[in-house]
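User: Predict the structure for this protein chain, please.
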Amino acid sequence: MKKTSLFILFVLVGAQLFAQAEEKSDLSFAKLSINYTNDYVFMGRTDSLKAPYLTPSLAYFHKSGLFAKGSFSYLTSSGQNRIDLSVLSMGYDADAKNFYGGGSLSAYFFNQDSYAVPSAMVGFLNGYLGYDFKFFELATDASLGLSDELDVFAGIEVLRTFYIFKNHILVSPSIYINAGSQNYYNEYYSTRSSQITQGGGYGKGSGKGNQGGGVTSQTSQVKVEEVSKFQVLDYEFSMNITFKSGPLRLVFIPIYAIPVNASTVKVGEDIVFEEILDNVFYWSAGVGYIFK
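Assistant: Here is the predicted structure, written as structure tokens:
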């Protein structure tokens, strides 16, 4: 009930704060795109089982800055093959001289068998503010993540955009630092993490391990220590490469994430371990078409 009430409140607030238009234009336009991401990585964390997503999306951007977007992500892992996540978003974007900013509200609908790290979340409220210093841009953002408990996130990014071949190619290297709390981690580790379930029976409501004697969250309480602590979670280095030709957009984004501050996980009374955090390289590629 608490989670539902907070989410309804976010929806009402979000009706005033719609956000982060992907492309600015003097005209309203729609964008149809499809993207492939080779693994779902959140704040530098990823499940031990890869979660590659194929994501079609449709968005409408009004010239006022308002936008609405819908997408679904198809999990292409062998033996999975399902729609693992659907997202509905609304937003607003504004700029004045060298300043830009906005806010966004997204509703997440994860499959009950999803093992994606943020799969306990049902909503995400975000605001951002940036300044273009010409030589580089500096941007900050703050977010609220809604699961069984409220999580607070913040980030800071330094980036530079280079325009090549008469602005047909845009290359934007960036450095991004993520920080936040991790209340959503409790539900993830209790019922979804394949590190706990050893790849068997993962998924919300199942919470059972491999028949060969894996740890079972049905019989053992799983708890992540200090999930309410606000701390740096990862450092990300990325390169956004976009090719533009008329209404066509081709995008490739390689990302290298360095997660920090590993969590301590307690299973029952006897088992305590520190999660394994490895640096991870992942990438996303996509194609989009703009209708004006």
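The chain has one domain: 2-291.
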